[in-house]
Amino acid sequence: MDCAAVLESAGATIAGTVGNVKDALLAIERLEVDGVLLDGNLHGQPVNEIAAALMRRGIPFTFVTGYGAEWSPQAFSRAPILGKPYPAADLVATVSRLASKAR
Predict the structure, then answer these.
(1) Could you give the C-alpha distances from 65 to 37, 38, 58, 74, in angstroms and in order?
(2) Pairing mode, if any, of strands 45-46 and 41-42?
(3) What does pTM read for this prediction?
(4) Which of 21, 28, 58, 69 is the most exposed place for a label (fewest CB within 10 A)?
């Protein structure tokens, strides 16, 4: 499933995608977004630094992971998790919730 295609067909605008921690941190500083889907790891790199930067900027996010709730870093244990694999409707509902938190 191509997440971007599913979300765009539901009316979302995708600000961008990144594949590593460095690019994610730069994007957080440069882009104005309503919310972020944050994979549980980026090519084996932990995403704690990204989650912390999102929290500092007040940007809502949801972890997207196949590891389950027990994976969640302790500092972010209250962050929502969308478990992989997920139906397209769950993806759209998650992004809708993120956007409503940003308003």
Answers:
(1) 10, 8, 22, 15
(2) antiparallel
(3) 0.89
(4) 58
